[in-house]
Protein backbone atom coordinates (compact mmCIF):
# COMPACT_ATOMS: atom_id res chain seq x y z
CA UNK A 1 0.00 0.00 0.00
CA UNK A 2 1.33 3.44 -0.93
CA UNK A 3 1.77 5.62 2.13
CA UNK A 4 1.39 9.38 2.23
CA UNK A 5 3.72 10.87 4.85
CA UNK A 6 1.38 13.85 5.20
CA UNK A 7 -1.11 11.45 6.84
CA UNK A 8 1.16 8.68 8.14
CA UNK A 9 3.52 10.83 10.22
CA UNK A 10 0.83 11.83 12.74
CA UNK A 11 -0.06 8.14 13.14
CA UNK A 12 3.58 7.29 13.81
CA UNK A 13 4.12 10.21 16.18
CA UNK A 14 3.17 8.23 19.29
CA UNK A 15 5.76 5.57 18.51
CA UNK A 16 8.42 8.17 17.79
CA UNK A 17 7.56 10.13 20.91
CA UNK A 18 7.96 6.95 22.97
CA UNK A 19 11.45 6.50 21.51
CA UNK A 20 12.32 10.17 22.15
CA UNK A 21 15.00 10.35 19.43
CA UNK A 22 17.29 13.37 19.43
CA UNK A 23 17.85 13.16 15.68
CA UNK A 24 15.78 12.00 12.69
CA UNK A 25 17.57 11.57 9.34
CA UNK A 26 15.67 11.33 6.04
CA UNK A 27 17.92 9.98 3.28
CA UNK A 28 16.89 10.96 0.70
CA UNK A 29 14.36 13.49 1.87
CA UNK A 30 12.39 13.14 -1.39
CA UNK A 31 11.31 9.69 -0.16
CA UNK A 32 9.09 11.46 2.38
CA UNK A 33 7.12 13.18 -0.38
CA UNK A 34 4.29 11.09 -1.78
CA UNK A 35 3.29 13.75 -4.32
CA UNK A 36 5.36 15.61 -6.89
CA UNK A 37 8.73 16.55 -5.38
CA UNK A 38 8.99 19.37 -7.92
CA UNK A 39 5.85 21.11 -6.66
CA UNK A 40 6.24 23.33 -3.62
CA UNK A 41 2.71 22.67 -2.34
CA UNK A 42 3.22 18.89 -2.40
CA UNK A 43 6.57 19.20 -0.64
CA UNK A 44 5.21 21.42 2.13
CA UNK A 45 2.14 19.24 2.59
CA UNK A 46 4.32 16.15 3.01
CA UNK A 47 7.02 17.63 5.24
CA UNK A 48 5.04 19.95 7.52
CA UNK A 49 3.82 17.07 9.73
CA UNK A 50 7.47 16.06 10.22
CA UNK A 51 8.37 19.61 11.21
CA UNK A 52 5.46 19.81 13.66
CA UNK A 53 6.26 16.44 15.20
CA UNK A 54 9.95 17.28 15.62
CA UNK A 55 9.09 20.57 17.33
CA UNK A 56 6.71 18.77 19.66
CA UNK A 57 9.22 16.18 20.87
CA UNK A 58 12.37 18.33 20.61
CA UNK A 59 13.96 16.32 17.81
CA UNK A 60 16.30 17.67 15.13
CA UNK A 61 15.56 16.61 11.54
CA UNK A 62 18.18 16.30 8.80
CA UNK A 63 17.08 15.81 5.21
CA UNK A 64 19.71 14.65 2.71
CA UNK A 65 19.48 15.29 -1.02
CA UNK A 66 21.58 16.17 -4.09
CA UNK A 67 22.32 19.27 -6.08
CA UNK A 68 20.98 19.15 -9.61
CA UNK A 69 23.79 18.56 -12.08
CA UNK A 70 24.34 21.13 -14.79
CA UNK A 71 23.34 24.06 -12.54
CA UNK A 72 26.80 25.39 -11.69
CA UNK A 73 26.93 29.11 -11.01
CA UNK A 74 23.37 29.46 -9.75
CA UNK A 75 22.31 30.24 -6.19
CA UNK A 76 23.20 27.01 -4.32
CA UNK A 77 19.89 26.93 -2.45
CA UNK A 78 18.04 26.94 -5.78
CA UNK A 79 20.17 24.03 -6.99
CA UNK A 80 18.69 21.56 -4.50
CA UNK A 81 17.07 18.76 -6.49
CA UNK A 82 13.30 19.11 -6.71
CA UNK A 83 11.15 21.98 -5.51
CA UNK A 84 12.53 25.09 -3.83
CA UNK A 85 10.14 24.09 -1.05
CA UNK A 86 12.76 21.74 0.41
CA UNK A 87 15.17 24.59 1.10
CA UNK A 88 12.41 27.06 1.98
CA UNK A 89 11.06 24.83 4.76
CA UNK A 90 14.48 24.21 6.31
CA UNK A 91 15.91 26.49 8.97
CA UNK A 92 19.48 25.76 7.87
CA UNK A 93 20.80 24.51 4.52
CA UNK A 94 24.33 23.07 4.50
CA UNK A 95 26.01 22.01 1.27
CA UNK A 96 28.88 19.55 0.96
CA UNK A 97 31.08 19.58 -2.12
CA UNK A 98 34.33 18.06 -3.32
CA UNK A 99 36.94 20.31 -4.91
CA UNK A 100 37.59 19.25 -8.50
CA UNK A 101 41.02 20.84 -8.76
CA UNK A 102 42.05 22.19 -5.33
CA UNK A 103 44.90 24.67 -5.23
CA UNK A 104 47.79 23.99 -2.85
CA UNK A 105 46.60 24.67 0.67
CA UNK A 106 42.89 24.51 -0.21
CA UNK A 107 40.76 21.84 1.51
CA UNK A 108 39.77 18.86 -0.66
CA UNK A 109 36.15 19.06 0.54
CA UNK A 110 33.90 21.80 1.90
CA UNK A 111 30.83 22.05 4.10
CA UNK A 112 29.29 25.51 3.62
CA UNK A 113 26.23 27.38 4.85
CA UNK A 114 23.85 28.32 2.06
CA UNK A 115 20.94 29.41 4.26
CA UNK A 116 20.33 30.00 7.95
CA UNK A 117 17.38 31.51 9.77
CA UNK A 118 19.12 31.20 13.13
CA UNK A 119 22.62 32.54 12.48
CA UNK A 120 25.20 33.51 9.83
CA UNK A 121 24.42 32.27 6.33
CA UNK A 122 27.91 32.28 4.87
CA UNK A 123 31.28 30.66 5.46
CA UNK A 124 31.95 27.03 6.21
CA UNK A 125 34.68 24.55 7.05
CA UNK A 126 37.04 22.35 5.09
CA UNK A 127 37.30 18.63 5.69
CA UNK A 128 38.66 15.42 4.27
CA UNK A 129 37.76 11.75 4.52
CA UNK A 130 40.38 9.49 6.05
CA UNK A 131 40.64 5.85 7.06
CA UNK A 132 40.96 4.96 10.73
CA UNK A 133 41.13 1.68 12.63
CA UNK A 134 38.00 1.72 14.78
CA UNK A 135 38.90 -1.61 16.36
CA UNK A 136 41.51 -4.27 15.84
CA UNK A 137 41.35 -5.11 12.14
CA UNK A 138 38.23 -2.98 11.60
CA UNK A 139 38.80 0.05 9.39
CA UNK A 140 36.24 2.77 8.81
CA UNK A 141 35.96 6.16 7.14
CA UNK A 142 35.97 9.22 9.34
CA UNK A 143 35.80 12.99 8.84
CA UNK A 144 38.84 15.07 9.67
CA UNK A 145 37.83 18.70 10.09
CA UNK A 146 40.21 21.33 8.72
CA UNK A 147 40.29 25.14 8.83
CA UNK A 148 37.23 27.41 8.53
CA UNK A 149 36.64 29.10 5.16
CA UNK A 150 35.13 32.51 4.48
CA UNK A 151 32.85 33.67 1.69
CA UNK A 152 29.37 33.10 0.35
CA UNK A 153 28.21 29.59 -0.47
CA UNK A 154 27.90 30.56 -4.12
CA UNK A 155 31.51 31.75 -4.32
CA UNK A 156 32.97 28.86 -2.34
CA UNK A 157 31.13 26.18 -4.32
CA UNK A 158 31.90 27.83 -7.66
CA UNK A 159 35.59 27.79 -6.77
CA UNK A 160 35.42 24.14 -5.71
CA UNK A 161 33.53 23.07 -8.84
CA UNK A 162 35.87 24.85 -11.26
CA UNK A 163 37.51 22.29 -13.54
CA UNK A 164 40.17 22.54 -16.24
CA UNK A 165 38.75 22.99 -19.74
CA UNK A 166 39.78 19.50 -20.78
CA UNK A 167 37.57 18.06 -18.00
CA UNK A 168 34.50 20.17 -18.79
CA UNK A 169 32.77 17.29 -20.58
CA UNK A 170 32.91 15.05 -17.52
CA UNK A 171 29.32 15.77 -16.54
CA UNK A 172 28.02 14.62 -19.92
CA UNK A 173 30.15 11.47 -19.73
CA UNK A 174 28.69 10.75 -16.28
CA UNK A 175 25.20 11.15 -17.70
CA UNK A 176 26.00 8.82 -20.61
CA UNK A 177 27.37 6.16 -18.25
CA UNK A 178 24.34 6.59 -16.00
CA UNK A 179 21.95 6.16 -18.94
CA UNK A 180 23.77 3.09 -20.25
CA UNK A 181 23.67 1.43 -16.83
CA UNK A 182 20.03 2.36 -16.33
CA UNK A 183 18.88 0.89 -19.65
CA UNK A 184 21.24 -2.09 -19.72
CA UNK A 185 18.59 -4.43 -18.29
CA UNK A 186 15.90 -3.34 -20.72
CA UNK A 187 13.82 -0.35 -21.79
CA UNK A 188 12.25 2.06 -19.30
CA UNK A 189 9.54 4.64 -19.70
CA UNK A 190 10.56 8.27 -20.02
CA UNK A 191 8.92 8.95 -16.65
CA UNK A 192 10.98 6.22 -14.99
CA UNK A 193 14.18 7.55 -16.54
CA UNK A 194 13.38 11.07 -15.36
CA UNK A 195 12.61 9.90 -11.82
CA UNK A 196 15.92 8.02 -11.59
CA UNK A 197 17.83 10.92 -13.16
CA UNK A 198 16.29 13.37 -10.68
CA UNK A 199 17.23 11.09 -7.81
CA UNK A 200 20.82 10.95 -9.06
CA UNK A 201 20.96 14.73 -9.37
CA UNK A 202 21.21 15.02 -13.17
CA UNK A 203 19.66 17.95 -15.01
CA UNK A 204 17.10 16.71 -17.53
CA UNK A 205 18.72 18.63 -20.39
CA UNK A 206 21.99 16.79 -19.68
CA UNK A 207 20.17 13.45 -19.82
CA UNK A 208 18.53 14.43 -23.11
CA UNK A 209 21.91 15.38 -24.56
CA UNK A 210 23.36 12.05 -23.42
CA UNK A 211 20.37 10.33 -25.04
CA UNK A 212 21.12 12.00 -28.38
CA UNK A 213 24.82 11.22 -28.28
CA UNK A 214 24.23 7.57 -27.37
CA UNK A 215 21.54 7.17 -30.01
CA UNK A 216 18.97 6.04 -27.43
CA UNK A 217 15.63 5.45 -29.16
CA UNK A 218 12.28 6.66 -27.80
CA UNK A 219 9.56 4.26 -28.96
CA UNK A 220 5.84 4.76 -28.44
CA UNK A 221 4.07 1.67 -27.09
CA UNK A 222 0.57 0.84 -25.90
CA UNK A 223 -1.36 2.83 -28.46
CA UNK A 224 -2.53 6.43 -28.52
CA UNK A 225 -3.80 8.59 -25.70
CA UNK A 226 -3.34 7.87 -22.02
CA UNK A 227 -2.91 4.15 -22.64
CA UNK A 228 0.34 4.75 -24.52
CA UNK A 229 3.78 5.57 -23.22
CA UNK A 230 7.25 6.42 -24.48
CA UNK A 231 9.97 3.85 -23.78
CA UNK A 232 13.69 4.49 -24.02
CA UNK A 233 15.77 1.74 -25.63
CA UNK A 234 19.52 1.45 -26.03
CA UNK A 235 20.43 1.33 -29.74
CA UNK A 236 21.08 -2.00 -31.42
CA UNK A 237 24.66 -2.92 -32.21
CA UNK A 238 25.88 -1.70 -35.61
CA UNK A 239 25.78 -4.30 -38.42
CA UNK A 240 28.83 -6.37 -39.25
CA UNK A 241 31.35 -5.04 -41.72
CA UNK A 242 30.72 -6.14 -45.33
CA UNK A 243 33.20 -8.31 -47.13
CA UNK A 244 36.51 -6.62 -47.78
CA UNK A 245 37.31 -5.13 -51.16
CA UNK A 246 40.46 -7.21 -51.42
CA UNK A 247 38.58 -10.47 -51.89
CA UNK A 248 38.98 -11.72 -55.45
CA UNK A 249 35.79 -11.68 -57.46
CA UNK A 250 34.45 -8.42 -55.94
CA UNK A 251 34.59 -4.98 -57.53
CA UNK A 252 36.82 -2.73 -55.44
CA UNK A 253 34.76 0.42 -56.12
CA UNK A 254 31.53 -1.14 -54.96
CA UNK A 255 33.14 -2.44 -51.79
CA UNK A 256 33.92 1.09 -50.61
CA UNK A 257 30.40 1.05 -49.23
CA UNK A 258 28.84 2.84 -46.33
CA UNK A 259 28.53 0.45 -43.40
CA UNK A 260 25.10 -1.12 -43.31
CA UNK A 261 24.00 0.01 -46.79
CA UNK A 262 22.89 -3.30 -48.27
CA UNK A 263 22.36 -1.79 -51.70
CA UNK A 264 26.05 -0.93 -51.94
CA UNK A 265 27.39 -4.41 -51.22
CA UNK A 266 29.48 -5.50 -54.20
CA UNK A 267 28.23 -8.08 -56.66
CA UNK A 268 30.34 -11.01 -57.97
CA UNK A 269 31.97 -10.47 -61.34
CA UNK A 270 31.19 -12.75 -64.26
CA UNK A 271 33.17 -16.03 -64.24
CA UNK A 272 35.42 -14.92 -67.12
CA UNK A 273 36.56 -11.76 -65.35
CA UNK A 274 39.68 -11.67 -63.19
CA UNK A 275 38.39 -8.79 -61.09
CA UNK A 276 41.59 -6.77 -60.65
TrEMBL record:
Pfam families with a match to the protein in the record: AAA_25
Highest rank taxon of the organism? Bacteria
Name of this chain's protein? AAA family ATPase
Annotated organism of origin: Caldichromatium japonicum
**What is the phylogenetic placement of the source species in the record?**
Bacteria, Pseudomonadati, Pseudomonadota, Gammaproteobacteria, Chromatiales
Amino acid sequence: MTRDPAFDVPLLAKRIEAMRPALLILDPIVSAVAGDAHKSNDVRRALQPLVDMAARIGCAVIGITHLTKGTQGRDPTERVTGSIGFAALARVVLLATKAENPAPGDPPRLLVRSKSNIGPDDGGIGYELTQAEAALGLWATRIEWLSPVEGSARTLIARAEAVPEEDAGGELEEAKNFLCDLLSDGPLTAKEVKADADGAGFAWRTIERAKRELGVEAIRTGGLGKSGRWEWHLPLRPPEMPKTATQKGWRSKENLAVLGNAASVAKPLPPDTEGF
